[in-house]
Amino acid sequence: MLTRLSLLALLAALAATATAAPIDRQAVVSRNDPQLKAMDPMAPLSVGNGRFAFTADVTGLQTFADHYWKNGTATETQARWSWHENANPNGYKLADANRDFTAHGQTLGYPTNQGSPAGQWLRENPHTQPLPRVGFVMKGADARALVPADVTAVDQRLDLWKGELRSRSTLLGAPLAVTSAASPDSDTVALRIQSPLLASGRLAVRIALPVGYDLTVKHNPPLDWSRPESHRTNVLAQSGRQLVVEHLRDASRYAMTVTSAAPLTIARPETHAFVIAPVRGDTLDVTLSFVQKGSAPGERSGHVFAASAKHWQRYWQSGAAVDFAGSTDPRARELERRVVLSQYLAGIQLGDTLPAQESGLTTATWYGKHHTEMVWWHTAHFALWGRPEYTARTLGWFQTILPQARAVAAERGLQGARWMKMTGPYGRESPGGNPLIVWNQPHPIHLAELLYRADPSRATLERYRELVMASAQAMASMLHWEEARQRYVLGPPLWIAQEIYDQSTSMNPTYELSYWARGLEIAQQWRERLGLPRDADWEHKRTHLSELPQKDGKYVAVESHPDTWDNVASRHDHPSFLMALGQLPGDGVDRAVMRNTLDAVLKDWDWATKIWGWDYPMIAMTAARLDAPELAVDVLLKADGPNNGYTAAGHNPNTGLPVYLPGNGALLAAVAMMAGGWDGAPDVPAPGFPKNGKWVVKAEGFKRLP
Questions:
Q1: How far is 92 from 118, CA to CA, in rounded Å?
Q2: Which residues have a Cβ under 8 Å from the Cβ of 267 and sit 6 or more positions away?
């Protein structure tokens, strides 16, 4: 007979066993499959592999691309390797966009004049080159342009576990089914299309190759179909089941191979368009493969579907997972949806060897260029979620571009490597305020440390040794000694992460000072791990950095303009000073002052106009480190602020940007921290979530945030 104590012990043991049971990952993932029952231009769904993506409307293709673009998000085919550069007859070079800044007894030119002819050309070039648009067209005597009203009975579902998009609808009164997937191994999309309209000859698929983007539109630009004479589409090979073409525009090129499982009819009604249909039957089973050089080998659709399913099952079963089932807080269901969809979007949009633009592979922003300060938000979460190989791919770009970064440092009188802010595949800086942003500089060091945490080996140290040391060298040489106060200062000139202050006079921003201390300390730890002594110069600078600026018991954004809490106009954009204790562990931070600062942000910040999607998770990270998990959840899921919504596809649109991946990446970083912990976190499960009985958080596989 069980005694009361033995019964309690048994119940405790059963509870521990239940807690230790692995998460049913397929159940968590599959219950968050996006499903659309109507056309939603803000939520097109995509398949991809991180360097290539195909985004579809409810027909499963890009039939209503113009409608989606005008009313929400573009539906495009993109590859991260596809770029184009306009001619440069004036021979513009970066120095032509320079503006002189004088500080600390020296005058240096920085390419901040983006409004000049040179600056505009250098910002626009190079720019991403979109791949073809693929959509349905009518054939026959009654052929006309298809319109959204032609589609009814929509049932579109993205099977996240397989990476397979299934689109079912009624088109022109007849059933239509399209299944698509992207190969993880090549830049290929498989399309399996079934409809009696194919058998009757009323429907076909049109593949159209644009000249590029309309560069007069900065974000989410339309495809440019003008000037057909300015580019070439050549047929390299054609047979009954295959079409191989190349697209040439100036020095840019890509090739496309269309492969069918059954005989095709292939027509070319326009110079840059092809129309394909099955010779007989109601099924069109094709793959479209793309390469930058040479010709893509033909892929079998069955192989692509099988490879996609295997890849995504492996993706979901690797690394970390979190399950909110059992939570009674009504927001838990939405948080789980956002987390799962953000992981999928990260897998198809981020983690390439070339850092992603902020809109990934869905649409174009900033001419396709990436912003290196966003690299942390885009890739740190992979390492925290136990998928460090994705972080490593992107960090590899920094290694490749290291010679260019060393040259930038030398031009600005610095040692080591100075990282460019807004850049394309070749590492050239883009004019604007960009060259004066500095919070990108410690990112390679911090990301390398995350990779070392994942694999604390000599091999990791050697692999990223030069990257860490060169980044730290530049950081140290960017500091200036202020004799009167016996301290080192950062700036001017600089542009702090809260991008509202004067660049020519800004000095000692709170977040950046703390990041300088952390970056130099990590670099010193790497020297010790490598058997080297601490660098004396770095140590003197690290230990004599200016104190983090504060006023009236709260941190301010920047010492040179300490008006954060005196001037309402200074309380918008990113409250970046919170990152000193949140994303970072708090070098130089007084926790009581930071708590006052957090409370002031929550109370007095401008939450109604310009605040960005990544700000919400960033603030939640600060709340978590301050042992305020209720606040962390409240701000993470804040519903009454702009730019904190997530579409049915999982995207986090921001003002003027229908797709904004820093929001997704920051969400994943914050949840990893809240569920998996951080250095010095309370020794309890999911330390960043409330212990109020409303949250049941089951987490496994996370790495702690340093």
A1: 6
A2: 274, 275, 276
Per-residue pLDDT reduced to its tens digit, 48-99: 999 999 999 999 999 999 999 999 999 999 999 999 999 999 999 999 999 9
What one-character DSSP code corresponds to residue 580?
Answer: G
Q: For residues 430 and 427, give the distance between their C-alpha atoms in angstroms, rounded to a whole number.
A: 9
Q: Regarding beta strands 212-213 and 283-291, do their DSSP bridges make them parallel or antiparallel, or are they unpaired?
A: unpaired
Q: Collect all residues with Cβ–Cβ distance below 8 Å to 651 and sequence separation of at least 6.
A: 42, 43, 73, 345, 362, 658, 659, 660, 664
pLDDT in tens, 126-166: 999 999 999 999 999 899 999 999 999 999 999 999 999 99
Cα 309 from chain centre: 23
Those residues whose C-beta lies under 8 Å from the C-beta of residue 84, and which sit 6 or more positions away, are 126, 127, 128, 129, 212, 249, 250, 252
CA distances from 405 to 411, 417, 423, 464, 645 (A): 10, 5, 11, 15, 36
Express each pLDDT in 522-550 by its tens digit: 999 999 999 999 999 999 999 999 999 99
End-to-end CA distance of the chain, in Å? 50
Q: What are the φ and ψ backbone dihedral angles of 194, each rounded to 5 degrees?
A: -135, 130
Nearest 10 degrees: Cα torsion 506, 508, 509, 515? 140
Q: Say how far apart CA 136 and CA 148 lie, in whole Å.
A: 12
234: number of Cβ within 10 Å? 10
pTM value? 0.96
Q: Which residue type, as a one-letter code, is found at position 176?
A: L
In angstroms, the Cα distances linking 256 to 127, 187, 233, 245, 307 are 20, 10, 10, 5, 20
